[in-house]
Amino acid sequence: MARVHANVNALLGPDWYDYEKLKIEWNVPDRYEITRRIGGGRYSEVFEGNDLSNEEAVVIKVLKPVAKKKIKREIKILRNLSGGPNIVGLLDVVHDPPSRSHSLIMEYVENTDWKELYNSLSELEVKHYVFQLLRALDFIHERGIMHRDVKPGNIMFNRESGNLRLIDWGLAEFYHPGVECSPRVGTRYYKSPELLLGYTLYDYSLDMWCVGCLLASMVFRKEYFFRGRDNDDQLLKITKVLGTNGLEQYLQTYELYIRTEAPDRYASFVRQPWTRFITAENRSTASVDALDLIDKLLRYDHQERLTAAEALAHTYFNAVRLQTPSNPAECFSDSGFYST
User: Fold this and answer.
1) Annotated active-site residue in 15, 138, 149, 334
2) Which reaction does it catalyse (predicted)?
3) 318-324, long-range: CB within 8 Å, 24+ apart, which pairs?
Protein backbone atom coordinates (compact mmCIF):
# COMPACT_ATOMS: atom_id res chain seq x y z
CA MET A 1 0.00 0.00 0.00
CA ALA A 2 1.23 3.51 -0.79
CA ARG A 3 2.68 5.39 2.19
CA VAL A 4 0.56 8.43 1.33
CA HIS A 5 -2.77 9.10 -0.37
CA ALA A 6 -3.63 5.41 -0.36
CA ASN A 7 -7.39 5.88 0.02
CA VAL A 8 -7.89 9.13 -1.89
CA ASN A 9 -9.99 7.61 -4.66
CA ALA A 10 -12.18 5.71 -2.23
CA LEU A 11 -12.87 8.98 -0.42
CA LEU A 12 -13.53 10.96 -3.61
CA GLY A 13 -15.80 8.24 -4.97
CA PRO A 14 -16.67 6.79 -8.39
CA ASP A 15 -17.62 10.16 -9.88
CA TRP A 16 -13.94 11.06 -9.54
CA TYR A 17 -12.23 7.90 -10.74
CA ASP A 18 -14.69 5.78 -12.76
CA TYR A 19 -13.69 6.87 -16.26
CA GLU A 20 -15.52 4.01 -17.96
CA LYS A 21 -18.82 5.77 -17.24
CA LEU A 22 -17.59 9.03 -18.75
CA LYS A 23 -19.75 10.30 -21.62
CA ILE A 24 -17.69 12.43 -23.97
CA GLU A 25 -19.28 15.11 -26.12
CA TRP A 26 -16.95 15.46 -29.10
CA ASN A 27 -16.81 18.75 -30.94
CA VAL A 28 -16.08 19.18 -34.64
CA PRO A 29 -12.48 20.07 -35.59
CA ASP A 30 -13.35 22.91 -37.99
CA ARG A 31 -11.87 25.69 -35.86
CA TYR A 32 -8.40 24.09 -35.78
CA GLU A 33 -5.74 23.76 -38.44
CA ILE A 34 -2.54 21.72 -38.33
CA THR A 35 0.68 23.58 -39.17
CA ARG A 36 3.44 21.04 -38.50
CA ARG A 37 4.18 17.69 -36.90
CA ILE A 38 6.09 17.93 -33.64
CA GLY A 39 6.15 14.33 -32.42
CA GLY A 40 4.38 11.05 -31.98
CA GLY A 41 4.55 7.58 -30.58
CA ARG A 42 2.73 4.31 -30.15
CA TYR A 43 -0.61 5.85 -29.28
CA SER A 44 -0.75 9.24 -31.00
CA GLU A 45 0.61 11.73 -33.50
CA VAL A 46 1.22 15.24 -32.19
CA PHE A 47 1.01 18.45 -34.20
CA GLU A 48 1.34 22.15 -33.67
CA GLY A 49 -1.75 23.96 -34.87
CA ASN A 50 -3.81 27.12 -34.72
CA ASP A 51 -7.15 27.88 -33.16
CA LEU A 52 -8.73 29.87 -35.99
CA SER A 53 -11.20 31.52 -33.63
CA ASN A 54 -8.48 33.46 -31.82
CA GLU A 55 -5.27 32.76 -33.82
CA GLU A 56 -3.62 31.18 -30.78
CA ALA A 57 -1.21 28.26 -31.08
CA VAL A 58 -2.41 24.89 -29.80
CA VAL A 59 -1.17 21.32 -29.72
CA ILE A 60 -3.32 18.78 -31.55
CA LYS A 61 -2.87 15.23 -30.29
CA VAL A 62 -4.40 12.88 -32.85
CA LEU A 63 -5.14 9.58 -31.15
CA LYS A 64 -4.34 6.36 -32.97
CA PRO A 65 -6.99 3.60 -32.83
CA VAL A 66 -6.96 2.44 -29.20
CA ALA A 67 -9.52 1.10 -26.77
CA LYS A 68 -12.25 3.59 -25.91
CA LYS A 69 -11.50 2.89 -22.26
CA LYS A 70 -8.00 4.29 -22.65
CA ILE A 71 -9.25 7.46 -24.36
CA LYS A 72 -11.83 8.00 -21.63
CA ARG A 73 -9.18 7.53 -18.96
CA GLU A 74 -6.88 10.18 -20.42
CA ILE A 75 -9.68 12.71 -20.84
CA LYS A 76 -11.08 12.04 -17.36
CA ILE A 77 -7.67 12.49 -15.76
CA LEU A 78 -6.92 15.69 -17.68
CA ARG A 79 -10.28 17.15 -16.70
CA ASN A 80 -9.80 16.14 -13.07
CA LEU A 81 -6.39 17.83 -12.99
CA SER A 82 -7.46 20.98 -14.86
CA GLY A 83 -5.78 24.07 -13.46
CA GLY A 84 -3.24 22.13 -11.40
CA PRO A 85 0.30 23.50 -11.09
CA ASN A 86 2.42 22.77 -14.15
CA ILE A 87 -0.19 20.43 -15.65
CA VAL A 88 -0.77 20.88 -19.38
CA GLY A 89 -4.25 22.21 -20.09
CA LEU A 90 -6.85 20.29 -22.11
CA LEU A 91 -8.72 22.86 -24.22
CA ASP A 92 -11.07 20.76 -26.35
CA VAL A 93 -11.86 17.27 -27.63
CA VAL A 94 -12.78 16.83 -31.29
CA HIS A 95 -13.89 14.03 -33.61
CA ASP A 96 -13.49 14.05 -37.38
CA PRO A 97 -16.10 11.67 -38.90
CA PRO A 98 -14.49 11.32 -42.38
CA SER A 99 -11.20 10.06 -40.94
CA ARG A 100 -12.82 8.56 -37.82
CA SER A 101 -10.06 10.23 -35.81
CA HIS A 102 -10.31 11.61 -32.30
CA SER A 103 -8.06 14.43 -31.14
CA LEU A 104 -7.23 16.26 -27.95
CA ILE A 105 -6.60 19.99 -28.24
CA MET A 106 -3.98 20.98 -25.71
CA GLU A 107 -2.33 24.11 -24.41
CA TYR A 108 0.74 25.04 -26.49
CA VAL A 109 4.00 25.40 -24.59
CA GLU A 110 7.38 26.41 -26.01
CA ASN A 111 9.99 23.77 -25.28
CA THR A 112 13.77 23.46 -25.15
CA ASP A 113 14.85 20.03 -26.38
CA TRP A 114 16.30 17.77 -23.68
CA LYS A 115 19.48 17.17 -25.71
CA GLU A 116 20.18 20.90 -25.54
CA LEU A 117 19.04 21.27 -21.95
CA TYR A 118 20.45 18.55 -19.70
CA ASN A 119 24.12 19.50 -19.90
CA SER A 120 23.75 23.28 -19.88
CA LEU A 121 21.57 24.03 -16.86
CA SER A 122 22.91 26.01 -13.95
CA GLU A 123 22.46 24.65 -10.43
CA LEU A 124 19.65 27.13 -9.83
CA GLU A 125 17.85 26.11 -13.02
CA VAL A 126 18.09 22.43 -12.07
CA LYS A 127 16.54 23.21 -8.70
CA HIS A 128 13.84 25.34 -10.28
CA TYR A 129 12.71 22.82 -12.91
CA VAL A 130 12.82 19.79 -10.60
CA PHE A 131 10.87 21.75 -7.98
CA GLN A 132 8.21 22.61 -10.57
CA LEU A 133 7.98 18.97 -11.65
CA LEU A 134 7.59 17.89 -8.03
CA ARG A 135 4.79 20.42 -7.54
CA ALA A 136 2.92 18.80 -10.42
CA LEU A 137 3.49 15.29 -9.05
CA ASP A 138 2.51 16.28 -5.51
CA PHE A 139 -0.72 17.70 -6.92
CA ILE A 140 -1.63 14.59 -8.91
CA HIS A 141 -0.61 12.11 -6.21
CA GLU A 142 -2.75 13.96 -3.67
CA ARG A 143 -5.62 13.33 -6.09
CA GLY A 144 -4.98 9.62 -6.43
CA ILE A 145 -3.32 9.63 -9.86
CA MET A 146 -0.03 8.11 -11.05
CA HIS A 147 1.49 9.56 -14.25
CA ARG A 148 3.46 6.36 -15.03
CA ASP A 149 5.57 7.86 -17.83
CA VAL A 150 7.57 10.76 -16.41
CA LYS A 151 10.50 11.43 -18.75
CA PRO A 152 12.05 14.40 -20.56
CA GLY A 153 9.88 13.84 -23.63
CA ASN A 154 6.79 14.33 -21.48
CA ILE A 155 8.01 17.51 -19.85
CA MET A 156 7.96 20.86 -21.62
CA PHE A 157 10.80 23.10 -20.43
CA ASN A 158 10.28 26.71 -21.51
CA ARG A 159 13.72 28.10 -20.80
CA GLU A 160 12.78 31.62 -21.86
CA SER A 161 9.99 31.94 -19.29
CA GLY A 162 11.15 29.33 -16.79
CA ASN A 163 7.80 27.56 -17.04
CA LEU A 164 7.34 23.79 -17.07
CA ARG A 165 4.43 21.58 -18.08
CA LEU A 166 3.94 17.85 -17.47
CA ILE A 167 2.25 16.39 -20.56
CA ASP A 168 1.07 13.12 -22.14
CA TRP A 169 -1.36 11.49 -19.74
CA GLY A 170 -2.09 8.48 -21.94
CA LEU A 171 -0.54 6.02 -19.47
CA ALA A 172 -1.74 7.74 -16.29
CA GLU A 173 -3.96 5.75 -13.94
CA PHE A 174 -5.94 6.05 -10.72
CA TYR A 175 -4.30 4.36 -7.74
CA HIS A 176 -6.33 1.84 -5.74
CA PRO A 177 -4.54 -0.09 -2.98
CA GLY A 178 -4.38 -3.81 -3.62
CA VAL A 179 -5.40 -3.47 -7.28
CA GLU A 180 -2.84 -4.88 -9.69
CA CYS A 181 -1.65 -2.69 -12.55
CA SER A 182 0.31 -3.58 -15.66
CA PRO A 183 4.09 -3.22 -15.27
CA ARG A 184 4.30 -2.54 -19.01
CA VAL A 185 4.25 1.23 -18.58
CA GLY A 186 6.90 3.92 -18.61
CA THR A 187 9.96 4.26 -20.81
CA ARG A 188 12.93 1.95 -20.33
CA TYR A 189 15.56 4.46 -19.17
CA TYR A 190 13.16 5.71 -16.47
CA LYS A 191 11.55 2.41 -15.47
CA SER A 192 11.72 1.78 -11.74
CA PRO A 193 13.02 -1.54 -10.37
CA GLU A 194 9.50 -2.71 -9.53
CA LEU A 195 8.43 -2.33 -13.17
CA LEU A 196 11.55 -4.11 -14.44
CA LEU A 197 10.83 -6.96 -12.02
CA GLY A 198 7.17 -7.26 -13.02
CA TYR A 199 5.74 -6.06 -9.69
CA THR A 200 2.06 -5.17 -10.18
CA LEU A 201 1.10 -3.59 -6.83
CA TYR A 202 3.13 -0.44 -7.38
CA ASP A 203 2.05 3.06 -6.40
CA TYR A 204 2.93 6.74 -6.85
CA SER A 205 6.56 6.02 -5.93
CA LEU A 206 7.31 4.81 -9.47
CA ASP A 207 6.97 8.46 -10.56
CA MET A 208 9.50 9.44 -7.89
CA TRP A 209 12.09 7.03 -9.32
CA CYS A 210 11.71 8.92 -12.61
CA VAL A 211 12.36 12.21 -10.83
CA GLY A 212 15.53 10.69 -9.40
CA CYS A 213 16.68 9.66 -12.87
CA LEU A 214 15.97 13.13 -14.26
CA LEU A 215 17.73 14.86 -11.38
CA ALA A 216 20.77 12.59 -11.77
CA SER A 217 20.88 13.40 -15.49
CA MET A 218 20.80 17.14 -14.81
CA VAL A 219 23.25 17.07 -11.91
CA PHE A 220 25.80 14.73 -13.53
CA ARG A 221 25.18 16.06 -17.06
CA LYS A 222 24.37 12.67 -18.57
CA GLU A 223 21.60 12.43 -21.15
CA TYR A 224 20.42 9.19 -19.50
CA PHE A 225 21.77 8.22 -16.10
CA PHE A 226 20.75 4.56 -16.53
CA ARG A 227 20.80 3.49 -20.19
CA GLY A 228 20.13 -0.20 -20.80
CA ARG A 229 19.78 -1.99 -24.13
CA ASP A 230 16.67 -3.80 -22.91
CA ASN A 231 14.82 -4.28 -19.62
CA ASP A 232 17.30 -6.88 -18.35
CA ASP A 233 20.24 -4.63 -19.14
CA GLN A 234 18.42 -1.68 -17.59
CA LEU A 235 18.16 -3.55 -14.29
CA LEU A 236 21.83 -4.47 -14.61
CA LYS A 237 22.80 -0.82 -15.09
CA ILE A 238 20.87 0.04 -11.91
CA THR A 239 22.48 -2.82 -9.98
CA LYS A 240 25.97 -1.69 -10.95
CA VAL A 241 25.24 1.60 -9.15
CA LEU A 242 22.95 0.59 -6.26
CA GLY A 243 24.64 -2.74 -5.61
CA THR A 244 23.70 -6.40 -5.48
CA ASN A 245 23.00 -6.54 -1.73
CA GLY A 246 20.25 -3.97 -1.99
CA LEU A 247 18.70 -5.77 -4.94
CA GLU A 248 18.69 -9.10 -3.10
CA GLN A 249 17.08 -7.52 -0.05
CA TYR A 250 14.41 -5.92 -2.24
CA LEU A 251 13.67 -9.24 -3.98
CA GLN A 252 13.35 -10.99 -0.64
CA THR A 253 11.13 -8.32 0.94
CA TYR A 254 8.57 -8.40 -1.88
CA GLU A 255 8.99 -12.04 -2.90
CA LEU A 256 10.18 -11.09 -6.37
CA TYR A 257 12.62 -12.77 -8.70
CA ILE A 258 14.68 -11.67 -11.68
CA ARG A 259 13.04 -12.77 -14.92
CA THR A 260 16.16 -13.62 -16.86
CA GLU A 261 18.05 -16.67 -18.07
CA ALA A 262 21.28 -15.35 -16.52
CA PRO A 263 20.54 -14.14 -12.96
CA ASP A 264 24.21 -14.55 -12.01
CA ARG A 265 25.10 -11.46 -14.03
CA TYR A 266 23.62 -9.35 -11.18
CA ALA A 267 25.55 -11.18 -8.45
CA SER A 268 28.66 -9.23 -7.52
CA PHE A 269 28.29 -5.46 -7.60
CA VAL A 270 29.19 -3.15 -4.73
CA ARG A 271 27.04 -0.07 -4.16
CA GLN A 272 28.74 3.01 -5.62
CA PRO A 273 28.98 6.34 -3.78
CA TRP A 274 27.28 9.18 -5.66
CA THR A 275 30.51 11.16 -5.46
CA ARG A 276 31.98 8.71 -7.95
CA PHE A 277 30.01 10.42 -10.72
CA ILE A 278 31.34 13.91 -10.03
CA THR A 279 33.60 15.27 -12.75
CA ALA A 280 35.18 18.61 -13.53
CA GLU A 281 32.27 19.29 -15.92
CA ASN A 282 29.48 18.70 -13.38
CA ARG A 283 31.06 19.78 -10.10
CA SER A 284 29.05 23.03 -10.09
CA THR A 285 25.72 21.15 -9.96
CA ALA A 286 26.75 18.13 -7.84
CA SER A 287 26.30 19.67 -4.41
CA VAL A 288 26.01 17.69 -1.18
CA ASP A 289 22.26 18.41 -1.06
CA ALA A 290 21.82 17.33 -4.68
CA LEU A 291 23.53 14.00 -4.02
CA ASP A 292 21.45 13.47 -0.88
CA LEU A 293 18.20 14.06 -2.77
CA ILE A 294 19.26 11.72 -5.58
CA ASP A 295 20.12 9.07 -3.00
CA LYS A 296 16.69 9.36 -1.35
CA LEU A 297 14.85 9.05 -4.67
CA LEU A 298 16.86 6.29 -6.35
CA ARG A 299 16.08 3.49 -3.89
CA TYR A 300 15.26 -0.09 -4.86
CA ASP A 301 12.50 -0.29 -2.26
CA HIS A 302 9.67 1.93 -3.44
CA GLN A 303 8.50 2.34 0.18
CA GLU A 304 11.81 4.04 1.01
CA ARG A 305 11.69 6.69 -1.72
CA LEU A 306 10.74 10.20 -0.80
CA THR A 307 7.19 11.19 -1.62
CA ALA A 308 6.69 14.29 -3.76
CA ALA A 309 5.78 16.33 -0.67
CA GLU A 310 8.86 15.10 1.19
CA ALA A 311 11.08 15.91 -1.79
CA LEU A 312 9.64 19.43 -2.02
CA ALA A 313 10.64 19.96 1.61
CA HIS A 314 14.25 18.85 1.04
CA THR A 315 16.96 21.39 1.85
CA TYR A 316 18.12 21.21 -1.78
CA PHE A 317 15.22 23.53 -2.64
CA ASN A 318 15.73 26.13 0.11
CA ALA A 319 16.70 28.78 -2.45
CA VAL A 320 13.54 28.33 -4.53
CA ARG A 321 10.81 27.01 -2.23
CA LEU A 322 9.30 30.32 -1.15
CA GLN A 323 9.73 32.11 -4.47
CA THR A 324 6.67 32.35 -6.73
CA PRO A 325 7.58 34.90 -9.43
CA SER A 326 5.28 35.63 -12.34
CA ASN A 327 8.24 35.06 -14.64
CA PRO A 328 10.57 32.49 -13.02
CA ALA A 329 13.32 33.11 -15.56
CA GLU A 330 13.73 36.64 -14.17
CA CYS A 331 14.86 35.18 -10.85
CA PHE A 332 17.85 33.24 -12.16
CA SER A 333 21.02 35.04 -11.17
CA ASP A 334 24.68 34.32 -11.74
CA SER A 335 25.20 34.07 -7.99
CA GLY A 336 23.34 30.75 -7.87
CA PHE A 337 20.51 32.13 -5.72
CA TYR A 338 17.10 33.51 -6.49
CA SER A 339 17.25 37.26 -6.83
CA THR A 340 14.29 39.37 -5.73
Assistant:
1) 149
2) L-threonyl-[protein] + ATP = O-phospho-L-threonyl-[protein] + ADP + H(+); L-seryl-[protein] + ATP = O-phospho-L-seryl-[protein] + ADP + H(+)
3) 319/124, 319/127, 320/124, 320/127, 320/128, 320/131, 321/131
- Which tens digit of pLDDT belongs to each residue from 202-226? 999 999 999 999 999 999 999 999 9
**Residue range 49-65, pLDDT digits in tens:** 999 999 999 999 999 98
Q: Any idea which fold 18-107 has?
A: Phosphorylase Kinase; domain 1 (3.30.200)
Provide the CATH topology of domain 114-331: Transferase(Phosphotransferase); domain 1 (1.10.510)
Q: What is the mean pLDDT of residues 79-95?
A: 97
Rg (CA), the chain: 20
Is residue 138 part of the annotated active site? The answer reads: no
- Would you state the pLDDT for residue 259? 82
Distance CA 59, CA 48 (A): 5
Per the CB < 8 A criterion, the answer to whether 157 and 117 are in contact is: yes
68 is in an annotated binding site: no
At 163, give phi and psi (nearest 5°).
Answer: -85, 155
Q: Which of 159, 297, 287, 285 is nearest to 241 (CA)?
A: 297
pTM over 0.90: yes
What is the pLDDT, as a whole number, of residue 335?
37
Backbone phi and psi for residue 102, each to the nearest 5 degrees, phi listed first: -115, 140
